[in-house]
UniProtKB/TrEMBL annotation:
SUPFAM superfamilies: UDP-Glycosyltransferase/glycogen phosphorylase (SSF53756). It comes from the Eukaryota. Belongs to the UDP-glycosyltransferase family. It comes from Salix udensis. One of its GO terms (molecular function) is quercetin 7-O-glucosyltransferase activity. This is UDP-glycosyltransferase.
Amino acid sequence: MGHTSIFPGPHQANPHVLLLPLPLLGHVAPFMKLGHQLVRHGSKVTFLTTEFIPLEDDHKDDDQLVQRFLHVIPGHLESLIRKANEDELTGNSRITSLVVDVVLSRDPIEIAEKMGLKHAILFSSSPGVLALILHIPKLIEAGIIDADDGTVKKNEKIQLSPSLPALDSADFIWRRPGNKSNLYQKDMFQYLLLVNQILKVPNWVLCNWFHELDPSATALLPNIISVGPLVANYGKSIGNFWSGDLTCLPWLDRQSPGSVIYIAFGSSSKFGQEQFHELAFGLELIGKPFLWVVRSDFMDGISIEYPDGFLDRVTNLGKIAKGRWIGLLSDEGIKANALQLKELAQNHAHEEGGSSKNFRDFVAQLML
């Protein structure tokens, strides 16, 4: 019986990295930027995803999408890698490494280990999220949360890192505001317990942040490599699947620099009618120019209804855009901190001693 090795040949000059993100925009975008940076630093990259990336209303049930993807991956990933590596056209460019989304990582990491591939997880959230996931067992042991579904048993602030502000237990990421049952919470919490263990398995955990964002973050795991901020090459837009709403630009150009409050809540956050009205009234009371990004599915199961007369009253004050991304800047201290972080991020993205060096070191390790 003939045998074709799936392992890299002795003369392979550059690593060939297979990237596997969850097929949602917020996951695909950083993976695409990661891929461009890996190519820039000498790797060959294959990007593996579904034929269609869920957009807008197509991903209302992200939890089911994750479960379906987890169910499909084990039966196809190994055969795909074997087929790619057995194809004589690949020559000395066989797949040698796998970088997988932390959400999908359990089975792909096991497959990579079985096939002798080097493997890494991309963790694209913030250091605080990673710290919270890694501290879950300690929170259970301290009696702060329930071990079954993460229900809060002691309502107190938690200091996860000396570099991060104390976290209110109401802000634990497995809790969804307005959720009428704890079914989602339990499923999410149990999955994060699994992620807690998975993060300790791969050769590397690539993180989309830089050292100054949280100096203590690199001590959370021994195999962390900070590669952030992940940015596109030469300012090109990478990982965006639709054009932005540009109708607000003429209005923005007429505002004073740094004077506009920007409000957005990502691609999946839901608001109840009361929360939506509170935010609208708050913006009106502040009395400052604002740009509010409101998705078509922003409300939880109901159509969007602004407070009576709100749109007429804020005609000259604010603009409402059909978009998807969010942050809030009105406090001068927050604004100054954001500008400082922006400068640090730009320096790390471009200087030789920042994430560029970490990428070079990572690619060099892939070649060993």
